[in-house]
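To: structure subgroup
Subject: Chain for Friday's discussion

All,

I'm putting the inputs and outputs inline so they're searchable in the archive.
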Amino acid sequence: MSFCCGASMVGTKGTLKHYQTQVHNVPLLFCPICHRVEVHYRVENEYEILAEYAHGDGAEHMDFQDYVMEDEETIFENVVNLESEDELEFVQSQIDMSLDLLVVAHWMKDEKWQGELKRRLAVMSQRRLRLQQKA
């Protein structure tokens, strides 16, 4: 599980650009708060090698899924949320987890972590409100 902005990152697949090569279906982790994106650590080495080879061959596009043997379920087994989940349920899950962690941060008297969690909660609460207004 990867963390950013005080709580867990979300698992998804996406496209990354490596020089002039677009690599599709790369397992990613992203932060719904600051929007930081990173290649999932289980496939990071494979991504770097394949992207370099594709770039060296002059390929404009490459499908990562064609070269990686691990299935999506195995790659994302330790991720708390996936982007493909219902968005309102996803946001509520992130809020609940952040509230639980805020209790721990308060108990540990970790002011910095508490601040990160409160910022995350503010962003996720605004997102939940927008989603509820849409429905």
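Points worth raising on Friday:
The helical segments are 44-56, 72-75, 87-108, 111-134.
The two ends are 31 Å apart (CA to CA).

D.
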